[in-house]
Amino acid sequence: MLSLVSVHCAPSHAEEGKGLDFSGSGFLTLATGKVLSGTHDPATDQGFKCPCFISDYAQGGVYEHGAWQFEPDSKLGLQGTVSGGSGRYSLTGQIVSRGAAQGQMDLEWLYGTFEINGKLTL
Questions:
Q1: Which of 11, 31, 54, 101 is most buried when burial is the number of CB atoms within 10 A of its CB?
Q2: What is the mean pLDDT of residues 75-104?
Q3: For residues 27 and 64, what is the distance between their CA atoms, to the nearest angstrom?
Q4: What is the DSSP string of 59-93?
């Protein structure tokens, strides 16, 4: 399998208004691959057009025999933080759309912070 990866990071920015601040950024990975040769075992192909290459089993990244494919490892991610109360609390999250999931957006992680005092954050 041959692959080409390009990564782009968007600049972060902040907007102030009505007591809430927002900052965000993102990333994009464009990857392509093609299975050139291999063997086919019908007992293990699990419905894929094999010979095939599993690039990311957990995320469903499988390159099938045939044409060049962009979907298995390409992804777009957006991250953002909303904070308020003079920076005492914030909510941060990341959503990702993977080509293997056919463009579905998934919440990867989300967490909140609360500053109890200048030395302690929960």
A1: 31
A2: 88
A3: 26
A4: TTEEEEBSS-BSTTT-EEEEEEEEEETTTTEEEEE
